[in-house]
């Protein structure tokens, strides 16, 4: 009853030297990884990837199997800038795939990112899978690999086992949870655990967990596929409720002695979400420190989209914003909402101030139906006018969603961009007159208009946005995504339309920093005031691109700004409701904010048509 876990070498420094000259198959992981077997079946290992073995007694393999009958390959990822002195922490990671699919190559990008960003050594395990090997063989291999890494890690891998982490995705999260419980019972300390979209209860049905029902047709893990995985590996109904297969049913002793710090990443559109929430809740009942986060709008297979792990933007955000304050940039408190609306906006956009009658106009472009709001202000103070009905705006429902609007010089109402082109909007009735369709019908699922402006010559500029890139996060696009589809157009008062393909230049690049720039306005001093989405602030940049200061507010999603007030030195800011499941319950998104800058702003010009 023994097994062997393959390790690269007994000398970790030698391991790293070998990795630095490894073959092209190894180096594609962009880190010093040490494969412990050939990437292709039947392909002999190269010199740099030579495989050595170490036999160790294991009480969990079937009787009659010897160390020579089975080796459990592992792969070791060393961070590129691993310190030459001391020992790095270690994370052992189990891949997903329903204990049927996948393998040691399945999650190389994720393990590479974790190794480099967390400065730790990552070990992945090639455990046996169904249909050839049934329950609990995969779990036994997971435990055997854990034991070997824990017992031999310091000497063989050069790691600090006093900083030992464990984790896995999907079925790999199930293996990690099982290992954490068994390790606790046996008195083996683990410092932290990371579970990505884990399987926690193999008895789960659409009747017992809400997400199993509402997400039964979602991509990545539909109901039939989940049952197929389960039936390939687990043969009996009794085994489904075995705590090895369903760690949610672990004993009180197993939970009490298990790992104390746990991070659980769940996907909103995943069938497994509810059981992950249940596992988090049970851990907390035993006093464990659990950070459980549900990522909105993504399915079970989000990790295959490179969604989990620390993105460079997240790393940069942590470096630049310790305690949410950017280093060396003054922070000014902007405060809470200036006007709390009876019904918070879904996405407030396009505020414009008209001095002639002291009114503030803006839209809720994602409300169904979309709405135009007109708010009467006091001309001497810029505060709410006594004539404003109940301190609330006049609201008109719109036939189409409007994303940006500007007053017209020669006629009443507005010129605006709707999702597909240019339109005129009646201020009294809310009637929308489609004037110029630009985006073809068959491309509206991937393109829409998002923002714009009117220049000093009275011409209307409108900009598209890539809807797919927007869903991924403009600051978090994969490296191979290419250039987003956004285009810039100009619509002139004479009715001519121009695609602006030349003359564009980069002013500020925040793609690897926190938050996403949204609408912006200019002061007479030449400073740019930028509403920052997902950052709770308005950032101020000089005309030379220097970050001057931040104005912080109590809403996460600051969407659009406008100058206004009697002296035209006040910023009015529309915000959006935070739709994330794990949002801050005290977030003030969806209301109106204002801040007296004390510097006059450049007015928003009118369209000369």
TrEMBL record:
Domain spans labelled Zn(2)-C6 fungal-type: 22-60
Keywords, in A-Z order: Hydrolase, Metal-binding, Zinc
CDD domains for the chain: GAL4 (cd00067)
Any GO MF annotation of the entry: DNA-binding transcription factor activity, RNA polymerase II-specific
Superkingdom: Eukaryota
SUPFAM superfamilies (alphabetical): alpha/beta-Hydrolases (SSF53474), Calcium-dependent phosphotriesterase (SSF63829)
UniProt binding sites for substrate: 448, 450
UniProt remark on cofactor binding: Binds 1 divalent metal cation per subunit.
Cofactor: Zn(2+)
Residues at the active site: 518
List of residues binding a divalent metal cation: 349, 518
Protein name: Zn(2)-C6 fungal-type domain-containing protein
Organism: Kwoniella mangroviensis CBS 10435
